[in-house]
Amino acid sequence: MRGPIVPYVRDASFPVRTAWYTGPRRLLDYLLMYVQEGEMIARVEGRGYRFRAGDFCLIQPGELHTLEGPANTITPYVHLDVFYNPVRER
Fold this sequence. Notes:
Blueprint: E1 8-13, E2 16-17, E3 20-25, E4 30-34, E5 39-44, E6 47-52, E7 56-59, E8 65-69, E9 73-74, E10 77-81
């Protein structure tokens, strides 16, 4: 091994939101979300998943997905790669 694995974080935030929806999209990087409060619904490649407080959600690069918080939520998230990949900057 050449050295430690240090994830490359492209974006991170700590959103506190009322009801919200993110339309269909495919990301170039990983999306890791934590449901701190409330509930989140993810639809990934046509399958629905319900996440509650204390759950993590990982969406892999290229997966078609939508995200929804039907009521108030706190959902910290991070967009990352395990290694820096300049192709995913586009």
